[in-house]
Write a structure and sequence with these properties.
Number of helices: 0
Order of helices and strands: EEEEEE
Shape: globular
Distance between the termini: 26 Å
Radius of gyration: 12 Å
Helix content: under 10%
Structural class: mainly beta
Strand content: 35-45%
Oligomer: single chain
Amino acid sequence: CDSGAACVDLTTSGAVCYLGGTTPLGGTCANLGECIRGAICVRLSDSRVICAQACRPPSTNFCAAGESCLATEDGGGFCLRN
């Protein structure tokens, strides 16, 4: 996807480029539609659900210094501080 859009897997009908909502990185979210452009809503191991920068593992191209790109179940990924 171009312009920082996150590629969202729709499972049965392919994928779409999602341009984003208004919740910033690190903010609490309930669904993907809330997160800013280039971010996805993820549940962390400590049960928090936050907006995190989308990435494609193992590449860290979209992650900040000190972050790794962790894989999601659908084949995408998100950046998380090491």
